[in-house]
Amino acid sequence: MAASREREPLEELRRELEDFIRSLAHPVVTEDDAELFDLSVTEWRLSIEFGKLIFEAWNSARSISRRLEGRAYRDGRRLGVFSHHSRAGRTTTLEFREQPHDTPGGERILSRDEFSRRLVAMLGHQYPGWRLEHVSHRSDREFSLSTWYTRGLARHGQNGWAFLALDEHEPAAAADSIVAFGLIWLEWLRHHAGRTVVSGLKLLMPRAAVELNAARVKCLNQRAVKVELFEWKPGDAAPRPVDISSLGELAARLVVRRQGEVLLERHRERLRELLGDAFDRVSIVPDSTGNALSVRVAGLEVARVEGDLSPRILFGLEGSVRQYSPKERPKFLALIESALERRTARNPNPQDEFYRLQSERWLESILISDITKVDPELSPRLVYSQVPSFAGNDRGVMDILSASRSGRLAVIELKLEEEINLPFQALDYWMRVAHLAEGAKLQEYGYFPGAQLEASPPRLYLAAPAFRFHSTIESLLRYFDPTIEVVRVGINQGWREGARVLFRRTRSERPYFE
Predict the structure, then answer these.
(1) Nearest to residue 32, comparing CAs of 99, 90, 77?
(2) Residue range 385-396: mean pLDDT, rounded
(3) Tens of pLDDT, residues 289-322
(4) CA 496 to chain CA centroid, nearest Å
(5) In what order do the strands lie in the sheet with 27-31?
(6) Contact, 435 vs 253, CB < 8 A?
(7) How far apart are CA 508 and CA 504, in angstroms?
(8) Which conformational region is residue 166 in: left (phi greater than 0), alpha (psi within -120 to 50 degrees), or beta?
(9) Residue 441: enclosing H or E segment and its boundaries?
(10) What one-character-per-residue DSSP string does 115-140 give?
């Protein structure tokens, strides 16, 4: 059983890679931005041998073999994977992607090497007398340095500042993570730059990335670091400074909760009749849009009801959803029973789709049933899951919104796998809730009716299996403004059999820089 559990993540990664590569019209594989093979005209395979996931590619001229160690990123038409290069004796990043092409407007997409050269040329012109050192866009898994960005150190005597730049053609996940990776690079330089005093960080990014990241930078501890944002793309003669202080708060809003509750009231009896004896063994909740009801077993959606007066019922798992009709009822009930029997910790097959799909929602359902597992101070009466929220044009879904027994708001973000950007993803939701709480708008949207909420800022909880917090999380949290209270909640690895909290930790009250 233990060997089967260890093989599970490798099988998931192998399946994801195979599906992704086959979804591309013209797939290529690169290593640290150098193309290795055109997979449309090359033989390749993925296999698990002796507990290791191996990628092999070959043609009549040459061949490669790499041991794959885990997913680095995925966005749009790119999927990066950490791999072990046995001859080089180091970890590299293999990237599977669509063959590069021109943009619809005819603009050529730059290689990362060319982007770096243009960046260095611009910085050299703008900052004469400063030496540009450690310039690279190579990935380094040991220190969590990503190939998405060009990074470096500008030094003048013993003074210096870190810089990190993003090309507009990198995936959206890169724009979302630039502050986190910038701080990681700053931290690396502060420990490896010798006598050079690295006082701050300059982030250069395309216009589309500015608004969200400016809001995040405003939440950093200004005593710990000076972060400057610049709007820049290749072709611009100079970067344009972003005045963070002049930017207003992002207008935050939620979906009105009453909308989903009305839908639940309207269709409750119809669902009771449809589900029969299974009605009391499933969860029926409004989905994040408020326009549909989701029928779930331990967080796994098995059916949904869309619409109000003339509802449409759909059932099935991801990739095999069908519309319900009376003649389909035996299949519908069989699906529900299968989910109830197989969506359990006792299932001996971790590859069973009823077991492996939507695992985060499974953990969420366990914690929602007893929110005091996260913190005994939280009130079981004041808890909401999958809360849709908006800030400007950006939409996200909070895992859990709750409040303590005394009325202090709590934002809870869950993760099952290591995620470098977890602190900043969670911070986005914290900012939205804090903004709405200041305007006393939460209850206008139907949350916490009749409750007396405290005026203090929300508490932010990051919950994950104890050994699934990324190694950079403590250093990232040290840069948060001290008024933002963050609690890390470490959960047992066997949470499916019963969630237990192994630790609750607040961030250090005495960061290294004081």
Answers:
(1) 90
(2) 80
(3) 778 899 999 999 999 998 877 889 999 998 788 9
(4) 22
(5) 34-38, 27-31, 90-98, 78-85, 63-75, 52-58, 43-49
(6) no
(7) 13
(8) beta
(9) none
(10) HHHHHHHHHHHHSTT-EEEEEE---B
34-38 vs 226-231, strand pairing mode: unpaired
| Digit-coded pLDDT (tens) for 157-205 | 999 999 999 999 888 889 999 999 999 999 999 999 889 999 999 999 9
H-helix or E-strand containing 61?
A: none
332 CB burial (10 A radius; 0-12, 13-18, 19+): buried
With contact defined as beta carbons under 8 Å apart, do 434 and 457 qualify? yes
Query: Three-class SS of residue 352?
Result: coil
- Inter-axis angle of helices 422-438 and 210-217, to 10 degrees? 80
DSSP of 71-119:
EEEEETTEEEEEEEETTTTEEEEEEEEEPP-B-TTSPBPPPHHHHHHHH
Interstrand relation of 34-38 and 501-506 (parallel, antiparallel or unpaired): unpaired
Between CA 177 and CA 167 the distance in angstroms is 13
Decide: helix, strand or coil at residue 52.
Answer: strand
3-state secondary structure 147-216: CCEEEEEEEECCEEEEEEEECCCCCHHHHHCHHHHHHHHHHHHHHHCCCCEEEEEEEEECHHHHHHHHHH
Question: What does the block give as tokens for 386?
Answer: 């999958």
Structure tokens at 40: 């449309």
What is d(CA 66, CA 490) in angstroms, rounded to the nearest whole number?
33
Residue 384 contacts residue 400 (beta carbons within 8 Å): yes
